[in-house]
Amino acid sequence: MRRLPSPLLHHPTLLPARGFV
Question: What predicted TM-score, i.e. pTM, was given to this entire model?
Answer without folding.
Answer: 0.10
